[in-house]
Amino acid sequence: MQDAKNLKEYRKEIRESLDNDFLRTAMDNFAVAYRGSRANAFKDMDEKALIRDIAEAKDAAASRLDELFAKFKEEAEKRGAVVHLAKDAKEANEIIGRIAMDENCKTIVKSKSMTAEETLLNHHLEDDLNLKVVETDLGEWIIQMRKEGPSHMVMPAIHLSRHQVSDLFSDVTGQKQGDDVQALVKVARRELRQEFVDADMGISGGNFAIAETGSIGLVTNEGNARLVTTLPRVHVALMGLDKLTPKLHDALRVLKALPRNATGQAITSYVTWITGSNECAAAEDDRKKVHFVFLDNGRRALAKDPVFSQVHRCVRCGACANVCPVYRMVGGHKMGHIYIGAIGLILTYFYHGTEKAKNLVQNCINCGACKEICAGGIDLPGLIKDIQARILEEEGHPMYSSFLAKMMKNRKLFHKFLRIAKTAQKPMKGKDGFMRHLPMIFMPDHDFRALPTVAEVPFRDMWAKVQPAKVANPKYKVALFSGCVQDFVYPEQSVATVESMRNKDVNLEFPMDQSCCGLPLQMMGEVTAAREVAIQNMEAFEGTDCDYILTMCASCASHLKHNYMKMLGQDPKYATRVKAFADKVIDYSSFMNDVLGVEKEDFLDSAGDAVTYHAPCHLCRGLDVKSAPRELMVKAGLDYKESAEEEVCCGFGGTYSVKFPKISEQLLTKKVNNAKESGAKVLLTDCPGCVMQIRGGAKKQGTDLEVKHIAEYMAERRK
Amino acid sequence: MTAKAESVKLFTDKAELVSAVVTEISSLDEAYKYTMDLCGKKEACKMLISGCEQNLSNTAEQLCATKTGKTIVAPALAKKEAAALEKQCEENGFTLIKDSVRNHLGGIDIAFTRVDHGIAETGSLVLNCPNEELRLATMISEVHVAVLPKSKLVDNSYELESWMEGNMMKGDYTAFITGASRTADIERVLAIGVHGPLELHILLLED
In the prediction, which pLDDT does B34 show? Predict the structure, then answer.
């Protein structure tokens, strides 16, 4: 659970997690294994179509929650169950406590329910009502005895070693236990079997609630949900209203994605479908008392929210955590309050409030890995940013953030600041293009990468000199969007772009009124300023006669293409214009490879260097560009050697790396090590931010790995 | 390959991927014999180490004492089938439990059942079990032997929708069972049989 009072405390907690070697190794192994098993589980399916269908069906269900609830209640009660609706956590717990009292239940067995974690049900039953509650999912039982919350939605005890479990079991049984996992599982089987025998009440969650028949569906591997819902004379299922779905078909459809996405299984060992009050020999009249408790806790309001209602598409598979590079390092206790991972950051805000969410929600590096695999197709990183913006509105903007917003929305002021920085940095400037010692000397955590200096001459001042002569009837009319980093820090990358397409029947333009794309503002949650900057840029390019807006920065490209539409697309004043703008945006590699169609013959015949590649998050996922840069490298005669985890974030994340330097540092170290292990001497990438991060990390580590923008090599290898 | 043969092959492959043992049989008598052999080979509560041999707390230890001799449970069989199975059990010295499965929570060696359907896509069995004895039998036994008539095999779960909905309209408890009970909760090490059966044997009956 998240208890940090402020960002400083939260950073300290994170550092403790980063120092936990067991956690780090376990998470690393899992992250790598998961990727393979998930891919295998989906290999014969149209995964994207399935995800689209689920999203559509879940959206439709969310829009009629009240109706589905009424139908479910009617149908379930026809078949002997009792259905309750709780407005919040407290009410849900009280309803369940009252059922236990009325039915004279003393002992309770539970099968895993995230909703019960959300309401802290066990606290109420144990502390207020003095009942005995035993979790029967192995992982849940373990963390219950350790008085911890789950650290993963599907594998709640993934943070613990077998030795810790062995010690725990030794205490519980009063007998010395060994370290063999199989034996420990057998001990649990026996110890928990006894608990099933004794229990008066069983509490489960519910993965599906089917309105048409008043049925619930439970997805488990261990089989404990079947015992929990069969042996005791009373069964209570606690579920969020978001589990309501019209028909069995909807549930069967989600079932195709849920286990595949959660653990890479085609299906779990058991899926249990329960309708009404079934036979139960332990009950007075051989009929079980069945109660279905639905929890609102903000869900109905959420369902009506035009932006956030898509949160209800979540099927609780936990995949967003499985692929999150941040979760992988810090674990669930630091990456969520009760719900963990990307969805956890969002749900914490809605179910547990601003206070619990405000630090957590900043801990998203916006790499988009979660969005790509989400079973419900939820725009998780986008929503996390939106929540950050909401919290800024609620709590007030911090000074640095307001200052940057004010400065960046005024292009002239911003560029003036960058020019002043060039002069101001002189005393710190080394001969190698890096800062000798950082102006951030007071922030030692930031010393993990060397930082570049601002260039002597920005690209905009070179443009008049480097621009190619105009072609009369060009095949392609292209306007360059340099972004601030390529304009003021790495103008050579922009120059290389121009050089790489010289004599290619391209007319190039560089609109001077362009400014920073605005992504840093959005990352900080400064939405108003981000929007203003977007309008300025759109207008700067509307003055040109171009077919393509080419940017050599993956982050800018994805921001211009997708987020501008999000920010302005709903506004009738800008809708058509922003669409026309966004449609023209293209990244460097796609333009060179797919549009311009450069070929092997365009490059030198000599053998090129051994290179490896880093796929920028906003290119490979943000724009879904995967093959173009790799094909370019091969065409240019380079000896491309694939690195491990090429598509995992380098840890830059713009302002993220300033806010969470320790996490950024770890990601960077891994990135540099993987590149070195590929055997390549040079790493190429498609984003100046990634160049800055990886080049700075390689320098700090003292390795001779060269880091370049792919355009630089394309220009160099040109015939 | 015929469509049916393809389904059988896919079902078998998928079930075996999750450690189920699949055998094709041509009569119920073969199924009884298979079960007798399996039970004979199985050391009661030992070979499968379902937990009794571990260092247990006193209360959990007591539950182990409730199990004596080799036991097979077969609820919900037709009278004639139950009689045939009972005869074989007697010949082999096994106890056949027909009801009150709740009194045997310490464990039963084998549950023998007929299941309603199989789903080829995932290698799953589908068991309609509003009958509590049948439901419990497939949970607390150490080995589950399930007879699945080949004619009851479907390609995917969608094909069972109307059948399931029909049951649900009446009030229902249905289980999809795929492989043995499993967990990976400790260090992600796959361990079999945490709460349910440690082995699943599927007998595909030609019909």
Answer: 97
Residue A530 CA, chain-centre distance (Å), reads: 21
Confidence of residue A443 (pLDDT cuts 50, 70, 90): low
Does position B176 have pLDDT exceeding 60, yes or no? Answer: yes
Any residues with CB less than 8 A from the CB of B138 and at least 6 apart, and which? Answer: B111, B113, B127, B129, B144, B146, B175, B177, B196, B197
A100: Cα within 13 Å, side-chain hemisphere:
28
In whole angstroms, give the CA distance from residue A187 to residue B193.
Answer: 11
Q: Is B40 on the interface with A (CB under 8 A)?
A: no
Residue numbers in B near A188 (CB within 8 A): 194
The helix, strand and coil proportions of chain B, stated in percent and rounded to the nearest 5, come to: 40, 25, 35
Which tokens hold the place of B57?
Answer: 């707390």
A43 touches chain B (CB under 8 A): no
Residues B40-48: contacts with CB under 8 Å, at least 24 apart: B40/B92, B42/B70, B42/B109, B42/B110, B42/B142, B42/B143, B44/B69, B44/B70, B44/B71, B44/B109, B45/B107, B45/B109, B45/B142, B48/B142, B48/B143, B48/B193, B48/B198, B48/B199
Instruction: Pick the closest to residue A115 from A351, A380, A360, A318 (CA basis).
Output: A351
Average pLDDT, chain A: 94
How far apart CA B153 and CA B147 sit, in angstroms, is: 12
Q: What are phi and psi of A432, to 5 degrees?
A: -90, 10
| Interatomic CA distance for residues B16 and B24, integer angstroms | 13
ipTM, two decimals, is 0.95
Minimal C-alpha gap between B7 and chain A (Å):
16
Instruction: Report the range of poorest mean pLDDT among A472-481, B96-105, B161-170.
Output: B96-105
pLDDT band for position A435 (cuts 50, 70, 90)? confident
State phi, psi for A612 to the nearest 5 degrees. -125, 180
Report d(CA B36, CA B112) in Å as an integer.
10
Which residues of B are less than 8 Å from A185 in CB distance? 183, 186, 191, 193-194
Q: Contact at 8 Å (CB) between B206 and B25?
A: yes
For the record, the structure tokens of A103 come out as 């039915």
DSSP per residue over A687-708, as a string? -HHHHHHHHHHHHHTT---EEE
Nearest by CB to residue A162, choosing from B14, B64, B186, is B186
Kindly report, residue by residue over A173-190, the tens digit of the pLDDT.
999 999 999 999 999 999
C-alpha A712/C-alpha A714 separation (Å) is: 6
Q: Residue A3: how many CB atoms within 10 A of its CB?
A: 9
CA–CA gap between residue A482 and residue A271 (Å, rounded): 53
Residue B89 contacts residue B64 (beta carbons within 8 Å): no
Interface of A with B in 133-162 (CB under 8 A): 136-139, 142, 155-158, 160-162
A269 touches chain B (CB under 8 A): yes
How does residue B43 score in pLDDT terms, banded at 50, 70 and 90? Answer: low
pLDDT tens-digit series, residues A548-589: 999 999 999 999 999 999 999 999 999 999 999 999 999 999
Does the beta carbon of A210 lie under 8 angstroms from any beta carbon of chain B?
Answer: yes
Distance (Å, whole) CA B137 – CA B139: 5
Are A688 and A586 a contacting pair, CB within 8 Å?
Answer: no
